[in-house]
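Problem 12. The chain below contains 295 residues. Write out its predicted structure in token notation.
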Amino acid sequence: MKKSLLIAASAALMLASCGQKNGSCGCKCTDPSCSCAKAEAKGAAAPEFQIVENEQVALADLPTDADGYITLFDGETLNNWRGYNMAEAPTSWNVEDGAIHLKGSGTGEAQVEGGGDLLFAHKFKNFTLELEYKISKGGNSGIFYLAQEVKDEKGESVPIWQSCSEYQVLDNENHVDAQLGVDGNRQAASLYDMIPAKPQNAKPFGEWNKAKIVVFKGTVIHGQNDENVLEYHLWTPKWIEMLQDSKFKEGGEFPIAFELLKNIGGGQDGDGGYIALQDHGDDVWYRNIRIKVME
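Solution.
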């Protein structure tokens, strides 16, 4: 059963955050350096958007191991997974040899009929996510987290990457994205287009890599092949600065993205967001997906 909450990504959001002690940008909203205060001063109106809240999977029904990790993928079915802004899993995703497999369309970012990003139908806020991935030659994909399901004022889907962080999955040797961005921030395990993974220790295409994402009270850590490769902190002035220096900047090409990302996961008092696997048009495999929820 669906329930929709219409959010005006302008004064309504700004006033909601300013009603707290600090704004979403990490500074008091009376401070003229704060992004929400700047928006008020400019009187800029961002587009309206809608966050759609769908029924979620009951975690108590899923197996949990001795270490407290919940199994998100049973190795045999796509139970509890569905497409972004969809009721069922896209037909481009299947299970192959104990792994979730995207049968690539070869179209890059242009998803074809039957395609789409695949998400686990439960929101997580504080967690440790562990999984393994294998990318095809020249392949590109990603692991989204703290994602929302969003539609614009026309009722059309807003791309999932505009609401969340992305752990990059890439064949560094054969995909051109590895040469773009700044200082390698589009290579494997990077916070896509924002922070590079260092050391860059991804294994070549066709080999399994271990991925780890930790989110705890705004602190985020990416791990790859048993090494921590980056750390950053949500809802801080530095987070807003990174957004403003990226393609998600306020008033830029993706104005909805800035409004969503400055309060990623619904903000410090929010409910978190979805974990999803990206359909970027290339074959990719994911397995051994498990999560530990932290309070």
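Discussion. The CA atoms of residues 54 and 244 lie 31 Å apart. Students who got a different answer should revisit the alignment rule from Section 12.3.
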